Amino acid sequence: MINIAKEDHIANEYPDGTGKQALLRIRNLCRTYIMGEVRVPALQNVSFDIGREDPEFVAIMGKSGSGKSTLLHQLGLLDTPTSGEIIIGGENVLKMSEAQKARFRLERFGYVFQEYALLPELTALENVYLPAMALGRKKKECFKAAREVLGQVGLGERLDHRPREMSGGEQQRVAIARALINKPDILFADEPAANLDSVSSKQVLELFRKLNREMGLTILMVTHEPEDRNYVDRVIWLKDGELEQHMEMLK
Questions:
Q1: I want to staple 146 with a disulfide (CB 3.0 to 4.6 A). Which of 22, 91, 129, 183 is the partner?
Q2: Model's pTM, two decimal places?
Q3: Are the beta carbons of 240 and 66 closer than 8 angstroms?
Q4: Would the CA dihedral through 217, 220, 224, 226 be positive or negative?
Q5: How many angstroms separate the Cα of 79 from the Cα of each of 26, 47, 164, 176, 188?
Q6: 160: pLDDT confidence band, cut at 50, 70 and 90?
Q7: CA–CA gap between residue 104 and residue 235 (Å, rounded)
Q8: What structural domains does the chain harbor?
Q9: Contact at 8 Å (CB) between 60 and 220?
Q10: Which sign does the torsion angle of CA 45, 97, 50, 40 carry?
């Protein structure tokens, strides 16, 4: 079994509001879209902390159009906020150049989306090792790491299968393995079970909970399914682009 979480990526000296070490600190985050002469505020002054000492599985919830996916895209550096701060280890990552952000994403973040985004002509193993190759790791090392993470998500016997030869649930687990290959600090998941049947959806959520509880991986997941709250530690509720409330769930 591999250890997903990295040991020393995040600085230790940056506490959150409780005095605990902060993995991720969001302050007054705003995102406004300009459509012609119309300004559409998608996020308005969103602030919260994600601690480091006790890795969390956090759900971001709210009605359609509340800003859930927009928030996730800002946190994952897939889009640029209009204003505000995203602080990791005491550093405002929004001040990085685009090249620095790209490297940071590749090294420190993992992403899982509603669509699996697998390359159809490649096997599961080949799809998974691509992000490791992008970091310049040796091919032999990449293959070994890909085998390990595919085994971790329960697909150790499907290494040579292509996407068309796998179910939707299996394809999503390949996508999760791909997100884990570079041992990220944070996994961002945007409606990861939306295209899955109830059985596969449960498997994916149980896998996320296992990655969080047993391997110390912080996970931020957008979902609209009320029952998904049963799997997470905390819910961040959005309403009209604003932070409505936090809800701590029982572990």
A1: 129
A2: 0.89
A3: yes
A4: positive
A5: 15, 17, 31, 21, 14
A6: very high
A7: 26
A8: 54-78+105-248 (3.40.50.300)
A9: yes
A10: positive
Tokens of 157: 């016997």
For 219, the token pair is 């996970």
Task: Take residue 76 and report the two structure tokens written for it.
Answer: 């994952």
Is the model more confident about 9 or about 62? 62
d(CA 47, CA 27): 4
Assess contact for 169 and 196: CB atoms under 8 A: yes
Q: pLDDT tens digits, residue range 47-71?
A: 999 988 889 999 999 999 999 999 9
HEC assignment per residue over the chain: CCCCCCCCCCCCCCECCCCCEEEEEEEEEEEEEEECCEEEEEEEEEEEEEECCCCCEEEEECCCCCCHHHHHHHHCCCCCCCEEEEEECCEEHHHCCHHHHHHHHHHHEEEECCCCCCCCCCCHHHHHHHHHHHCCCCHHHHHHHHHHHHHHCCCCCCCCCCHHHCCHHHHHHHHHHHHHCCCCCEEEEECCCCCCCHHHHHHHHHHHHHHHHHHCCEEEEECCCHHHHHHCCEEEEEECCEEEEEEECCC
Residue carrying the six token digits 């902060």: 22
- Phi and psi at 97, nearest 5°, equal -70, 165
